[in-house]
Amino acid sequence: MDSKRQLICQKIDARFKTILIANGYNTDLGNHVFEWRGNPIDENELPALNWRDVSEDDSNASTGTIGYHNHVLTMEFKVATAKGKTTAQQIRALLADIIKAIGVDQTWGRLATRTDPVSNEMQVEEVETIIGGVTITLNITYQTMKWNPYE
Amino acid sequence: MTIFDDALRTGFNIINDAAGSVVTFRGVQVRGDFGRGWVTIGDVQTYRTRFECMAADVAGVSIRDRSASPTADDTLTVNGVEHAIIEIQPDGNGSVILVLSRD
Considering only CB atoms, which chain B residues are within 8 Å of A44? Predict the structure, then answer.
């Protein structure tokens, strides 16, 4: 049996894999979506998205509705691309695709109450080629029964 | 955390024969050490390239001008591939390292 957090992560991974030009998005980011990838991404795999469920704030668990725990799951999405002199424009297009994908259903199949943007930070660096990316942070709020991660 | 603050690991190899590398600068052949090393930027593994030579051989070299009307735009041609110069690092003792980009 999968926990609610695991189910949300599965939904996120599946949703971002639909980011394809054929589905009406700006980019084919969905071809290279990774969960907690530890080894470096090769330039041939760009654009790529590496996502992590980095932390969860459960501090208001005891003050939530009686019989429930409230959770705020912080997700980090790192997107990278290399598109020469148009790298910055490409990053903005990727960012727009991600926002659009979240907007398809911010409850992730009614597993969560809502999804809120926290921040995004964009950077471009030139080495042998121009590499750029954006780190996006989101909070996903969901609820479980007290001491029951599954429901 | 940003995507670039964990650029920790680098490696570098000088790519030469015993006599060094020959590149073309302003139509003139210049001898020096051409190197290419990997660098991890955020989650991406890529490369950093450089050319080290006598400063006098590339006197007046300028980095790429990204303005709308560039007035200076030196390049180095290495093995038939044109590279922009994105950084100039003189050592103060007559040598200089030119950091290169293919983009």
Answer: none
